[in-house]
Amino acid sequence: MVRSILKIKFSNTIKTGLIAFLLLFISVGNSQVPMYKVGTLNDQNSINDNVVSSICKDSLGFIWIGKMDGLFRYSGYDAEVYSSSSNDKKRLSNPWVTDIIGYRDELAIGTKRGLNFFNPKTGIFRRLFPSGTNSELSNEITSLLELPRGRLLVGTANGLILVASDTTSVLKEIPLFVDGVRNKAVRVRDMVQSPHGVFINTELGVFQLSEDSNRAHKLAFISGGQELNDIRSIYATKDRRLLISAKQGFFYFDIGSYRLTMDKDIRVSPIGELYSNWPPTKRVNVVLEDSNGTIWLGTEGNGVFSYYKQTAQWKNYRFEIDKKNVLKNDFIRALYEDESGMILIGSDAGVNTLIAEGGIFQSIENLTCKNIKEDVSNVHSILTDRNGRLWIGTRGNGLFVKDDVICINVHPDENGRLGQIRSIIEDEYNRIWVGTQEGVYIIDSRKVKTENIETYLKNVQPALLPETEIYHILEDRVGNKWISTLSGLYIYTAEKNLRKITNTNIETILDKKVVYSMFLDSKERIWMGTLNGTIAFLDLNDYDNPYLFSEYIGKSLNFQRIAVAPTYKDYFENYGVYSLTEIVDGTILAGTNFGVCKIDIENKQIAPLFSVDEVSTSSNLGNSYVYGLLYNKNQNQLWASSNNGLFSYDFNSREIENFGIKDGLQSLEFNGNAVHKDSQGKLYFGGANGLNIYDASLRFEKSSFKPNIALTKIFVNGKLLENDLKSRALNNEVAYTRSLTLSSKQNTVGFEFTSLHLPHPLSNYFKCKLIGVDHDWIELKNKRSINYANLPKGKYSFQLMATNNDGVWNETPLTIHLEILPAWYNTWYMMLLWVLLSLTIITLFVRVLIKNHNKNNALKIKEIEQENLQNLYESKLVFFTNLSHEIRTPLSLIVDPIKTLMSHSEIYGRKPELFNVLNNNVDRLRRLIDQIMDFRKYEYGKLELNVVHADMVQTIRSITASFDFHSVQQKIKFKVKLPEHEMLMYFDEDKIEKIVYNILSNAFKATPAEGTVRISLRNFDPQKTKKLSKYKVICGNDKLHEFQNHIYIKVVDKGTGIRESNLEEIFTRFYQDKTINSGTGIGLYMVKQLTELHSGTILIKSKRHKGTSFIIVLPRNEDIYSTSIVDDQPLVSQGEKAERPSTLILRGTDNNIFKAKTHSVAIVEDNDELRMYLKDILEGHYHVFTATNGVEGLELIKDEIPDLVLSDVVMPEMDGLELCRQVKNNFDTSHIPIILLTAKTFDSQKLSGLQSGADVYLTKPFNREIVLANIANLITSREKLRLIFQNEKILEPSKITVSSVDETLMLKLKKYIEEHVQDQNLTLERMATEIGVSRAQLFRKMKALTGLTPNNFIKSVRLKFAVKLLEENKLQISEVAFLCGFKEPSYFSRCFRETYGCTPKEYMKS
Q1: Are residues 237 and 377 in the same domain?
Q2: What is the tens place of the pLDDT at every residue in 932-983?
Q3: Residues 6+ apart with CB under 8 A from 457
Q4: Which residues does 111 contact at the CB level (< 8 Å), separation at least 6?
Q5: Of 792, 826, 860, at which residue does a domain stop?
Q6: Both 758 and 799 in a single domain?
Q7: According to DSSP H, which parts of 161-300 are helical?
Q8: In this structure, are 530 and 624 located in the same domain?
């Protein structure tokens, strides 16, 4: 009622006065209350800012938060949400959670629709609905309380029920009695356990339920004769007092002083009688007494109050607009303290945390100046003066001065020069020097009091260096002030003289560098550090009278530079120095952007203070930006402010400690050189959000709290593993999992974990190892996950250790047993099966080996036999080939003499028949040799067709003519039936001759005397193929009816015939029929191969003793032989008879060249008879020289220089090819033409001969007329070339020589003569010297090539040059004569007339 009246009746003026009074009261009341910092949970995305009804903690240490939108489990880093579902066992029955308590091994969770029992180990919810037992009971759960013997007391919206310990499915309703009358439908607000039973706060008041009673009785709380009503909350303290928040105020009574009986009135006292200076609040929703005895009050609209009983002080935490570290909302629903002392606050806008600030460091983030709270941020300079005042210089917030009474702030809005204050010092005369962005202010503390400083700074100008940005001020032992500025370094001497030291006309090593920090060490050295990679010092002992330092101004001061140690030169390039200090042994330390560095004064070098091994993995002091350094001599400790918090290094224990937000730091970021140490030993550090103070005389203790470690997530192959029906790997929730069995394919495992020390979870560090993989612990720092990939099968143990917020490690690691199962094919039973299968396969394999051993041996024997047959075949082939080569030479000595004799009519006329027999058999022998050579060519794949356009009738007629004499001799009727007209087509004449000759030869062999052999030739008619049905197709196309434009050759004999089974075998290599004289056995084989080359078909029909019929079908199509056609051969006219082989006519030889022996020929041949025969042929026409091998021949050629060389190829000592190469590459003999005469007939052999330099390649047996004609042609060609040279007006060496050596020589001679054409004394000797040969060699060579002596050759070149000049018609004839090297024009004219038949003058006119 009073509250309503106040809301309605109070005027705005009264409200304002009351609020001012309350603020003043609060400011006085909380002066000594322990400070707590308001914060929030880390995961603000998952936990929405709405109504929080209850907070609880489970046995592992997870925080459970009940909210209007579900249940949340908080791990310190993130939250897992449990929402609602009507039938899912993994979800709540209703999203609005009203209360949570720990019940046995589960959580009892009350919602607005039912009671839920949650098993954290399995993740399963069990539901209980009171209406299921009694439909009159409400399902809205309002409060929960665990009773002894495992019973659960449940408050609902219309009563109280009891859940028995043996089962949670049986409910017992607890009736509520008022004055002996049972009341139904009473809403329960909360319940409190006490030694006398349970106090139950309802909408009707407080009821008491004794331990052994089955009913609850109402208690009447009396104060001042009136009963308390509208009781909002009750709470039992540790000292057995019940605190009561009612409409009339806050009361209490001592539970132990009353004997609680039915309907007894209980007198309560105002809380002020128990606790003086109680917070001014009435509507308290929830009360909490923490482990320190502090009482926390959560109110309805006034935030949270804390009451500290020892000092009777209190503090109020509330929501403030646009302020940080305040509550989210002032309507408080839940309070909870965890084991670490953190207070959790649930409000209508989410969860806040309260963490005690009684840490190591005092933090000043704001100061109240003139009743206005001012932010103390971006602190750059600090000083505590002799009067105990704290001076704070900032960037953007001006200057703060605070003493024990007042605090003043001179803001940049009042004095713009104070926008940035980097340095504040106190000199020996108690004057404060303030270095600003626009000069130095000097404040005399003896004259200017604290309350007057603001006015003083508003009215005065800078005492020194106005408009100059100040970085640092240092006072030395004699009172000189060293002032570093943006424009250079200054000194203000004790005699009050200001002088500039750097950036003057006197050069120093500090020119164009900003000195950021300065330090005076114990040996009177001033150290100066810049941001441009330079440290230097000035030793004041070098100067006689530092008191008269002004005497040295204007002179170059002895600054000594500190260089970077060679090892770190590249790494420390352009480093910056933010702070300098000295430790006990005199070592100078520097705070840089590369960590802490030490200076080796003796070597004048700087290097890192810590090596990699010295700095622990939990610290990154070695690579942080170190902004400030302070040395605490008493504890031998170095303190460093950085961009990663504060560090302390103990030189005795060599341990590094890192301090962060949890330790009370204003932030992790500090400012350069913003450090100070006062006379009391306190250390000051200025940072981005304020100032931190550390009392070095106090020893700080680390928290001994040992938090639990728990897994929060498990990842398998990159996917989250969950405890559900789909996953068989987990039997429990992840946090309770202690063993994990995975398949072989699930061999990549990741773990996420937490250390449940929750105030500052990011300060918890972890280390782990997987036994079986890791040998040592893996330091994770505050990273809380790790992944192991591609684990082989086997058993592992994952061990995890963690620290609390102060870095204290727990003693027992969390161990997870992990097993990767083998693949199905790698299990023990499958391995056994594989062994059995392997043994079986080996057994079978051995049996197969044994079984096939004889078979393999038989195959090897067969292979050997085949190899022997092949070798025998190759031997035969080589033998026949070599034999054919050997036969060709004696055959040449037979063929040529016979033809020579037959060419003499008087000799041939005596016995023409005998000469014809000789000639025919010689031709037969030649054909046999050629057939053997063709056979070998075919075997090596080098037999090709030389197709020409010719008359097949003429070709067949010439072949049959060679059998006329044979048929008469053997008395065989030989009938030839050929068309009377020409049958022009494309074919290889030589190959067709071999085909027909072989077939006719076999026919004559198989035919006895008086028998018949017939041959016919006609066009093939595809319409008449029925007659050929009895023929067997040996090769080619058997679809005879498809043949178009074909001819066929048919040979029929009446001989012994061939067995039908042998018809195909007779066409194989080396087949011989014993019934007849079958020869070498390659004739019909070659017939088949040559026919196939012509794309032809062979048909055969034979009967024993009846005879054989051969048919050769050949195509007439031109396109079949498109790649094999050569130039057409001249055809014999239809009326002209083919020339008989016995007829020999000598043609084409010009006998005139043989009349006189003007030329010589060298014969090189190892066969004596052939060499003598060749000499006999040639010596009637040439001078002949002979040699028996290539070596003799080469010497002979060099000595005699013949006009032509005729040589064999196969010779001892040096063959003909090598002889040819040496002749052509020799200067003296390169012009001599060479004819190779050999028995080697392969195309590749001919090509080798021509490539060696031969001019002509002739094969044995040879025709004498052809040999003579080639010799005559080569000699005549050489003579013609010489004539061409002599008659050409212009010299072209390529026209007078065919040898590259000769052509090169002639080009050199021509070039040399043309270059010296005006030289009238040009001689043979000079040209020989230029060319590099002897005079005789050059004479012979020029004579042989040109037919001219060297002098005539020179004259010829001069005349040819003269012709060129005359044709230009620009010079007189006398000028031309002198330019061409002629001494007199008359001699020139005479020579010109002799050469060209006219005078030079006549030539010019023509």
Answers
A1: no
A2: 666 666 666 656 778 888 888 888 888 888 788 778 877 888 888 889 888 8
A3: 399, 410, 414, 415, 418, 441, 443
A4: 84, 92, 93, 94, 95, 96, 97, 98, 140, 141
A5: 826
A6: yes
A7: 271-274
A8: yes
Q: Are residues 535 and 402 in the same domain?
A: no
Give 647-659 pLDDT, tens digit per residue. 999 999 888 888 8
Q: How many domains are there within the chain?
A: 7
Residues 434 and 444 in one domain: no
Taking the whole predicted model, whether its pTM rises above 0.85 is answered as no
380 assigned to some structural domain: yes
Q: Cβ(97)–Cβ(53) under 8 Å?
A: yes
The side-by-side arrangement of strands in the sheet containing 973-977 is 973-977, 1012-1019, 1046-1053, 1107-1115, 1097-1103, 1032-1035
User: What band does 410 get if pLDDT is binned at 50, 70 and 90?
Assistant: very high
Query: Distance between CA 458 and CA 414 in Å, rounded?
Result: 7
Same domain for 1170 and 1114, yes or no, is: no
- Smallest CA-to-CA distance from 407 within 378, 382, 371, 439 is with 371
Instruction: Output the domain CATH number for residue 690.
Output: 2.130.10.10
In angstroms, the first-to-last Cα distance of the chain is 151
- Among residues 642, 665, 695, the one where a domain terminates is 695
Q: Are 1086 and 934 in contact (CB under 8 A)?
A: yes
Long-range CB contacts (< 8 A, 24+ apart) of 494-497?
494/547, 494/549, 495/548, 495/550, 497/550, 497/553
Check: CB of residue 799 under 8 Å from CB of residue 769: yes
- Cα 288 from Cα 307, distance rounded (Å): 10
Evaluate whether 62 touches 74 at the Cβ level (below 8 Å).
yes
Per the prediction, the chain carries an average pLDDT of 82
pLDDT at 299: 96
Q: Is residue 704 included in any domain, yes or no?
A: no
Q: What kind and span of H or E run contains 1264?
A: helix 1264-1287
Enclosing domain of residue 818? 709-826
What is the spatial distance between Cα 207 and Cα 184, in angstroms, rounded to a whole number? 13
Q: Strands across the sheet with 794-802, in order? A: 739-742, 814-820, 794-802, 766-771, 778-781
Please count the other Cβ atoms lying within 10 Å of the Cβ belonging to residue 278: 20
Amino acid letter for position 437: Q
Q: What is the CA radius of gyration of the chain?
A: 63
The answer to whether residues 812 and 786 belong to one domain is: yes
Token pair for 1339: 């004479």
Pair 368, 406: CB distance under 8 Å: no
Tell me: do 508 and 651 sit in the same domain: yes
Q: Is residue 662 part of a domain?
A: yes
